[in-house]
Amino acid sequence: MNELERRARQGDQSAFEQLYRLHARRVYALCLRLAGDAVEARRLAQDAFVRAWERLPGFRGDSAFTSWLHRLTVNVVLADRRAAGRRRRRVMLDGDAADAQPAADAWSPERMDLERAIAALPAGARAVFVLFDIEGYGHAEIAAMTGIAPGTSKAQLHRARRLLREALSR
Amino acid sequence: MSRTSDRGTGPDDLQARIAALPREIVPPDLWPAIAARLDRAAPGADARPLVPSRAWGLGGGLRAPFASPWSRWGVRPALAAGLVLALAGVLWLRQTRAPWRVLRAEGAYTLASGRLETSASSRVRLGVGRLGEVDVAPRSRVRLLSAHPEHRMALDGGRIEARISAPPRLFYVETPAATAVDLGCAYTLAVDSAGGSLIHVTVGWVELRRLGRASVVPFNMSAYTRPGFPPGTPFADRASDSLKSALYRFDFGRGGDGAAAVVLREATATDAITLWHLLQRTEGATRVAVYRRLAALAPPPPGAAQARLLALDRGALETWWEALPGSPGTLPWWQRAAVRVAAWLGLM
């Protein structure tokens, strides 16, 4: 645990703000891809950091802060999704893309096509695809986080890739 | 995270395009909204600021005097009164959901997307739902952040004068250096170009919070804040200039124990609340010295033993707080009610 994390853990809000500045882009990218919606992603990223603040006293430094925050963010998004079948799901709109700027000069029409195709995936397939293909989790971990069977995770991944290929070939 | 053989099985360029996706995407600045929520979400109980936990101030302070008669009057009247209070509470909650409104304006000002800016010659009076009013002075920048579940605004620069008549913790003002939490009061709050602020409370109490520390600023007292520092120690209007200067050095400079010694030397009974805060911000021999000075000015009540106070026991500190000169615990209920009514009518 580094000094910044230690200070934040002790309730130092300015230290936590620095942690936010360090990790916001990664957390937001994860939320954006999992939610498929920029407005939801902003809300979920906020929720994730507030949850991290609340849970910081329990962070012992056994794992890297990045991994801890990442896992916490995934849990926040998945819990929100479970709780919000009743909430309206939106597909990323043109206006939403305006505030979704990649950190580096990674913008390209191909990338945006792929991002839109990911956002348009069914929620279950999108979650598995993002966690497996982009974030590097294994099927067993995804199964544990999402509450589905590992076999279902594999099937969802296969489905997501197929849908993406179809979308990108149009 | 583990990787399995499923990865990289795409026969087309899908995997290559996925691999090229950036892992980071720049979001809009979410920090102001997050910071506003952090002040309500403490990072574990241990890190909560050591401030009086009871609902003090004019709003909360009225509870205790009204509480005891119920037990004498019997159960039925108490139940009936409870129903009436519950109904009043529901009505009150509906009132608190009312939005921000511009009640009055002089001169040209801009208000767009919740951002209000006054010119050198303009001023605006905002209605805080039905909780009260905020006057925004010339050359001020304000953001209206939320109207539910509580009214929350940010003062980025300039000055406001707030008059709130509501239960505690329904009106918040964010500044670059601290959050001002209304406890039922009237106050002025000015933010300078460096993000520092000075709050002066004229009625009731305000709590300043940031960096895991809180300062409770009662009426006829003020407090400074500076970005990167916890809220400053409150000081009385009548405190000597030497005390104020030393306190500023203690809070924001490198005054240390030397500055604390000046504060102790200059302190009078008027400064008891200052010393009560200082007790929690010092250590070792300096804390003992603060204790002795405060005990000489306002002896701790029987329930607050020296050892517990020096150990910063919350219960002992609260007991002492209620006995301090100027604390709401020392005012008769009718006096607090009178001040509250006067504030409601705008007479103070």
Would you write up a description of this structure?
The complex is a heterodimer of chains A (170) and B (348). Chain A folds into 2 domains: 1-101, RNA polymerase sigma factor, region 2, helix turn helix motif (Rna Polymerase Sigma Factor, Chain: A, Orthogonal Bundle); 105-170, Arc Repressor Mutant, subunit A (Orthogonal Bundle), CATH 1.10.10.10. Chain A contains 9 helices and 1 strand. Residues 86-107 of chain A have low confidence and may be disordered. Helix content of chain A is 72%, strand content 1%. With 170 residues, chain A is mainly alpha-helical. Chain A has helices spanning 3-9, 13-35, 38-55, 65-83, 94-97, 109-119, 123-134, 139-146, 150-169; one strand at 101-102. The radius of gyration of chain A is 17 Å and the shape is globular. In chain A, helix 2 (13-35) crosses helix 3 and helix 7 (123-134) crosses helix 9. The radius of gyration of chain B is 24 Å and the shape is globular. Chain B has 12 helices and 16 strands. In chain B, a hairpin with a 3-residue loop joins strand 5 (123-128) and strand 6 (132-136). In chain B, 36% of the residues lie in helices and 25% in strands. Chain B is an alpha+beta fold. Chain B has a 15-stranded mixed sheet that branches. Residues 1-5 and 43-73 of chain B have low confidence and may be disordered. At the A-B interface, helix 2, helix 3, strand 1, helix 6 and helix 7 of A face helix 1, strand 1 and helix 2 of B.
